[in-house]
Design goal:
By secondary structure, the chain is of the alpha/beta class. The protein is built from eight helices and five strands, in the order H-H-E-E-H-H-E-H-E-H-H-E-H. It has a five-stranded mixed β-sheet with strand order 2-1-3-4-5. The longest helix is centred in the first third of the chain and has 18 residues. It starts with 7 loop residues before the first helix and ends in an 8-residue tail after the last helix.
């Protein structure tokens, strides 16, 4: 059986009650706080994500990149946040929950597929794909029109929410000797 454990500090992290109408900036600020902790604790790659949803806009799932510490290629922040969220609601899709995926970097090729099957209605991104590639991460072969493709599926994409802060965290990760895998 596959088990992907998060870092211990993630279990004790207070989850905000921002409400269903919370601003993207407020949700992203919290996700970037998680990212800052991930980088400071050196518990995985420089990526974090959370799924907000339900009638109260609660954090349904949170994930940080665990690829290297777990030797698991699919342990991306978005995948782990979606997995926790779907387990929390007790079904494989978040469709109908008002789910919003807030991620520190635009989804890679793998995460792009996961968010479609995960049933989210919105994706809010901080850093761009180009930012991750600039530090050496291989984001995979995504369609050039991935935003339009998601739009055709009814999924809205918002870009550049606190982008500079997310890019700074990725750079700190590299500066402190973090592994850039698949580059």
């Amino acid at each position: 059986m596959l088990r992907i454990e998060g870092p211990e500090w993630l279990d004790d992290l207070p989850r905000p009650a921002l409400g269903p109408g919370a601003a993207d900036e407020d949700r992203m600020a919290w996700v970037l706080d998680v990212l800052d902790r991930q980088v400071a604790e050196r518990t995985g790659g420089p990526f974090a994500a959370a799924v907000f949803g339900g009638p109260d806009g609660a954090v349904l799932g949170v994930g940080v990149n665990r690829v290297e510490p777990t030797a698991t290629c699919v342990a991306h922040a978005e995948v782990l946040a979606l997995a926790e969220a779907t387990q929390r609601v007790g079904r494989y899709s978040l469709a109908g929950t008002g789910a919003v995926l807030v991620t520190s970097t635009e989804p890679c090729a793998m995460c792009l597929g996961a968010l479609v099957w995960g049933g989210v209605g919105r994706v809010v991104c901080a850093a761009a794909d180009a930012d991750a590639r600039a530090i050496g991460f291989d984001e995979g072969d995504k369609p050039a029109d991935w935003v339009a493709a998601l739009g055709r599926r009814g999924i809205e994409v918002v870009h550049d929410v606190h982008r500079d802060r997310a890019v700074a965290a990725m750079r700190r990760y590299v500066d402190q000797g973090g592994t850039v895998y698949n580059g």
